[in-house]
């Protein structure tokens, strides 16, 4: 699939991944509705296989590959949820996943890759070392690279989360997603455009990693440089495939500070009794900081994942 | 209702509370099944109104009271989930709830009572002061006492959690609940006896508060003296109404140590991405410590609640 996913491609992805993916619940909270003034519908991808929406894109991509393409396994560099999701997807097709991870990756993320049978090669924690190490792994193994977001098959997979949300709550005024590399956001924007065209798409991004916001308002690509945020899933730059979709189909990108993110995360834990990772709290933080935009609006929020190091919580100072 | 709840009384309670209670989800986890060797079905009362199963009994009781009985409000002493549940139930009937709470109650529990409009009177953290203060409150207000567990209306309400679980997973080999005062356990045992008579009822209790275990094996009431456990919902003694039901209809009571409880709690947070309180982790801890009993068994576990002070997690040493 080398073209922008159309309606059919997203529906085909949904069918393809169905057996290996959870149709995650959509939860509501009267308490958080009262607090925000909005009507919130949380699409809980923290309950997704491997703990994040990333399983959707990884399964879609790996199941589109032929036996020949899979013969030598797949590979990627990722410090996060894509690594575990790709390891799991590869195992489902009976092939290997080679994962390049920064040596300072969290224990939880390393364990998740191990659990799904991924083979880890550690590298220094910078993009240069990640790419260099991945090149070496590819040369040694001839494994096929599966990029975490800059791939139309990945985007079509991530789009299925919004598709499910749209099917279960009709009609939404707004759909929100966090933005890092833009895989989830561009998929969300496409599904909204095709299946719920009256619904606005509002993205949310940490102020400390606001490259997507700056790219969006200047309409020209701004790379992520020295990002600094607790939302560790949102550190990367937009991709050449995700950015144009975002420009075309996203209405607004809102940015929020670190304290807002931590407060929003803790509120969701406390009131909804679900565990979400910091990146997932960014859209709800944006709602709380912009109550005028969301007042009385039926607002879907994609909770991107729930992989948190429970030994290090941002509101507990050791 | 001054007699042991029969089948009809439990079904009536289910109908009575339906509009004001969540039919909470039953979640499964492949990961925890692999780890335990059992097939686990978690009935998630952490997603219940006010964050715990206690809302069932409180709503059932308050909605059985006449307008005259409610005229001066209701009252109770409770440091925990019954306090918030009763406050909420009273508000639903437009009456007041007077809550006697130990002065060392956690901030989260105090806030919950305030949120639902309960009026708090603080007392010293011992049973004598709790009862004395409650007497004073009753004299001042003429409010009607609603006991947290030693009341057949409460027991019938708590029984509806197991009823829902039994309806959604057929047939279970085992149903588990934690035991403190015995309201949840006796209700669970009655529902299992009436609606799924082939299913065994296995209770779980902290070793540091094992009065129910000792009462059960000696078949004579042993009070809870100086209980010491992180499972703060399980500190109380059995009641004169709950103990006979437990003797008649519970198969076994298993006890577990503190480290097991904390480990089980963290595993559920980490793998299932849900927030449960320590008391709720006690049955799963018992499964992990007694794998032979549960191997391959379809085991329902009632997760009693999710009200945790997120600033003080037992696995994080400050």
Q: Strand tally of chain A, please?
A: 10
List the secondary-structure elements of chain A in sequence, H or E: HEHEHHEHEHEHEHEHEHHEHHHE
Number of helices of chain A: 14
Name the assembly state.
homodimer
Report on the structure:
The structure is a homodimer of 318-residue chains. Chain A is α/β, with parallel strands linked by helices and 318 residues long. In chain A, 46% of the residues lie in helices and 15% in strands. Chain A has a six-stranded mixed beta sheet with strand order 1-2-10-7-8-9, with helices on both faces. The mean pLDDT of chain A is 96. At the A-B interface, helix 12 of A face helix 12 of B.
Distinctive features:
homodimer; about 325 residues; alpha/beta; 14 helices; about 15% strand
Topology:
The structure is a homodimer of 318-residue chains.
Chain A: H1 7-17, E1 26-27, H2 30-36, E2 39-44, H3 54-64, H4 67-70, E3 74-77, H5 81-92, E4 97-102, H6 107-115, E5 119-123, H7 127-141, E6 144-145, H8 152-168, E7 174-178, H9 183-195, E8 200-206, H10 211-218, H11 242-249, E9 252-256, H12 258-272, H13 278-289, H14 291-294, E10 298-303
Parallel strand pairs in A: 2-10, 3-4, 3-6, 4-5, 7-8, 7-10, 8-9
Antiparallel strand pairs in A: 1-2
Helix pairs in contact in A: 1-3, 1-8, 3-5, 3-8, 5-6, 8-9, 9-11, 12-13
Brief sketch in words of this structure:
Two copies of one chain form a homodimer. Chain A is built from 14 helices and ten strands.
